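Dear Dr. H.,

I hope your travels went smoothly. While you were away I took the liberty of generating a structure for the chain from your last submission, since the lab meeting agenda had it listed for discussion. I wanted you to have the full record in hand beforehand rather than looking at slides cold. The sequence, exactly as received, is reproduced here:
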Amino acid sequence: MEPKDSKQALRRNVIAKRKATTITERRQAGEALARGIDALPLPRQQRTVATFLSMGSEIETRPLLHALAEQGYRILLPRLGSGLDIGWGEYSDLPIEDLGMHRPQEPSGDTLPADALAQAGLVLLPALLVDIHGTRLGRGGGWYDRALAHCAPGTPMVAICWPWEVARTDLPRERHDIPVTGTFTPLGYSPIAYPQA
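The corresponding predicted structure, in token form, is as follows:
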């Protein structure tokens, strides 16, 4: 099986399991993330964190956004634009533009360029699966792999996922895949012990 075919099969299985979670479970998981932020490699000097607004069956990230804002962090959120465009918006609590079920909500206000990500001292990104080498399986559009190329060297990149989405076996990896440096689940933060060479 080709890596792309294998990834599609994995995505289908993970998304099916996620859809079995309830709204209450997703909210409770999001509240657990918010309570656990002090374990993250939060930037002490560069007080900007890039993260995302959850959608669908993802763990609810709004409690996490509120917790980061309460600690005084500037928060960047994706603005998807059209086609392959990469952009960022600044989180300001509300309003947030609702783009429907198949696209995440986005912050209102100015769109910042792709290289705004270089200002982030921590990137929290979505994942369907992550293995022990930091290989991350996303939704398949490649948006984050293109976006992460703009990170400053050494920036921690932490995948938010459910505990069962931390894989014990190697995931298929392609040349363009950028590994993450840790995972953040409702059970806590874990650095990647065996980073991809």
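Two observations you may find useful: Helices lie at 3-19, 23-35, 62-70, 143-148. The chain has four helices and eleven strands.

With kind regards,
E. W.
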